[in-house]
Amino acid sequence: MTFQELESLYNLPLFELIQRSRSVHEENWPSAEVQLCTLLSIKTGGCSEDCSYCAQSARYNSGVSPERLMEKCQILERAKAARESGSTRFCMGAAWRGVREGTKRFDQVLDIVRDVSELGMEVCVTLGELGPSEAQKLKEAGVTAYNHNIDTSPEHYPNIVTTHTFQDRLNTIRHAQDAGMSVCCGGILGLGENTTDRLKMLEVISSFNPQPESVPINSLMPMPGTPLAEQHGVDTFELVRIIALARIAIPKAKVRLSAGRTNLSEEAQTLCFFAGANSIFYGDKLLTAANPAVEKDLNLIDRLGLKPQQPNPDLSAPNADQTKPNQPQIA
Question: Looking at residues 238-250, what average pLDDT do you find?
Answer without folding.
Answer: 98
